[in-house]
Amino acid sequence: MYQPLAGEIELMVTIAIDAPDVRIRGRKVVGGVSEGEALVTSQTISGWGGVNPMKGEVIESHHELRGVSFANKILVFPGAKGSSGWSGIFHLTRLTGCAPLGMLYNTTTTKAALGAVVLRVPTMTDFDSNPLDLIETGDWVRIDADAGEVQIWKRQAQ
Amino acid sequence: MVRLTDDESAMRDGRDGAAVAKAMDLLIRYADALGAEDFVYTNNVAGVPGSSPQWVKDYYAEDGGDYRAVFSRFDLDSDEVVDVPRMNAFSCHLQGGMDPELWREQGMSEEAFVNFATDEREVADHGIQVLKTCTPYLAGNVPVMGEHCAWMESSAVVFCNSVIGGRTNCEGRESTSAAMLANRVPDWGFHKDDYRRAQHSIDVQVPVDTIREWGMLGYYTGSAVEDSIPMLDGSITAPTLIKHKHFGAAAASSGGVEMYHMVGVTPEAATRDHAFGGPEQGERFTYGQEERAAVYERLNSIGHSHDVDYVMLGCPHYSIDQIADAARMLEGRRVHENCALWIFTSRAVKATAVASGHEAILRKAGAILMTDTCSAISQAVPNGTKVAAFDSAKQVHYLPAMMGIEGWFGTTQDCIDAACTSRWQGRLN
C-alpha cells in the first residue's frame, strides 16, 4: 500500500486548511457537508421542461446555462420557477447519477425546497450576503449546511 | 424545526403504519427545508401518485419494480419499500400520459399502454380518484374559500388560490403523495394570510374581454411580475371561469404566478387596499396597446410557415362550454386533409360532451376529442407535425420548444379555421 511521505502529508494538510477567500452564512435547507466546483447562474431554473434529467442538463430555450450540466457541481442559482414537476425532475437526476453535489439558492419556494429534500444533497438559503455576487462558475465551494456556513475558494486565487 | 402535535408525532412514530410514518418523515424534512413552524390539516390533495413510465420502475428493479416500489422509494422518498395502504385524504390523480382509448392515435406503444393501465388500476385500488385532468375543478373537485389544499399543476394552483380563494402552494409529486397519506402539508406560503397579499400592480388600459385577450394579459402579467403576486385593475370585463383558466395558465407559464388579484373580480380583492392588505407597494406596470401588441408578437414569434398541419385545443383541458363552442364552429365543416385537430379534456367532461352530442359533431368533422393528457405532457403530436396552432398561451409557450416545431397563437375561431383550411390567418385586430 502506498505510504505518503511526511512532506506530502504536510502539503495536503496545508492545502486543506488554506483559509477560504470568502465565507458566507445562511440557513440549512438540507443538512450535510459537500464540496465541489461551483456552477453559477443568475437566472431561475425550470425543472419540468427546463432540465433533461438523463444528463442533469439545462434545456430551456434562452437560458444562459442551456446545454450545461449541473451533475456533480455545486449549483448556485436564484431560485426555482415553472411547473410543479420541479422536484420530480430533480429527483430523477438522483436516479440517473446526474444530481448536483449541493445547492445554494436565494429565494425559498415549495419547488426548490422539496427538490432539495428529495435530492438529499446539502443545501442552504437565507444568506447574510448574496452568493450570486461572491461565487463564480469554477470556484471551489464547501457547504457545511449543519453549521450554516459556505466557504469559497476563488479559482484565480489558487 | 417544525412543531408536531401529539397526533403528528404518533404518525411519525408509526402509529398508523409504516407508509404514514414515511410520509410524515418526508413532510417533516420538507417543512424544515421551507422553515415552516407548523403543519396544516388538508383533506383535498391532487397529484400524480405512484404513476411512472417503465424506465423509472426499472430503476427500482431490485425493489420489485412495481407501483409499491415507486410509491415508497420515489413518492415517499423512503429508503425502504413499505406497504402502501388506501389513501387517507380525499385524493385526486391529475393528468396522465395518454388517452386510455386513443393511445394508438397518439403514437404510444402497446407496452407503454399496459404500464399505464396497470398504474391506473393501482391508483384506483389505493382510493385515489381517477380524474386524469389538469382541471380538477371542472371534474369534481371544487374547493371552497379558505380550504387548505395540497395541489400540483401550476394552472390549477393559480386557479384555486385566485379565483376560488382556496389555499394551496404549488406542491410537488412527493409532497402531494405524502399528504394523501398523512393529511398534512407545511403551514407555509399561501396557507398564511400575509403571504397572499398583492406585491405589484398592473393598470389595464386596453379592453380585456375575450378568452384570447385574457390569455394575452395573463402572459404579460407573468412576464412582468415573474413569481410574485400581482393586483390587476382597469378595463377587465366579462369574467368567466374559462377566461380565468386561460389567464392563470398563461401567467403561471410565463412567470410562475401562483396567485393574482383582480379588483372587484377575485374574492380577496374587493378593493385595491383589500388586495394589498394595506397601502399599495411594489412596482406599477401598465398594460396598454403597445404591451398588448408585444405579447401577441412574442406568442407568434415561433410561427413562420402559414401551412398549419396540427391544431391543438384544450390547454388547460377544455370545459364543456368550450367543447360546445368548438362543435358549433365546426358543424357542417371538415378538418382539412393536410391538418389534424385534437381537442383535450377530462373524462368527466368528455362524458358530458358525448351525452350532449358535441363529440359526434366533432367526430363527423374529423376532429378527435381526447382525454387525460395533452401534447406537451405526453409529447404526442400527429405524425409529421411541423407547424401547430393553439388558442392557449401556455401551450404555445411549451410545446413548440419541446417538440422542435413552429407554433401560432390566436382565437379559438382562428384555430378552427386553420384546421379546416390548413392555413393560419390569425391576426391582431
Give the structure's gist in a few sentences.
The complex is a heterodimer of chains A (158) and B (429). Chain A has 158 residues and is of the alpha/beta class.
Identify the notable features of this structure and list them briefly.
A: 158 residues, alpha/beta, Glucose Oxidase, domain 1, 8-stranded mixed β-sheet, 4 helices, globular, B: alpha/beta, Aconitase, domain 3, 4-stranded parallel β-sheet, 17 helices, 14% strand
What does this structure look like?
The complex is a heterodimer of chains A (about 160) and B (about 425). Chain A is about 25% helix and about 30% strand. Chain A has about 160 residues and is of the alpha/beta class. In chain A, helix 2 (about 85-95) packs parallel to helix 3 (about 110-120). Chain A is globular, with a radius of gyration of 16 Å. With about 425 residues, chain B is α/β, with parallel strands linked by helices. Chain B folds into 3 domains: about 5-190, Aconitase, domain 3, CATH 3.30.499; about 195-300, no CATH class; about 300-420, Aconitase, domain 3 (2-Layer Sandwich), CATH 3.30.499.10. Chain B has a 5-stranded parallel beta sheet, with helices on both faces. In chain B, strands 8-7-6-9 form a 4-stranded parallel beta sheet. In chain B, strands 3-2-4 form a 3-stranded parallel beta sheet, covered by helices on one side. Chain B is globular, with a radius of gyration of 22 Å. At the A-B interface, strand 2, helix 2 and helix 3 of A face helix 2, helix 7 and helix 16 of B.
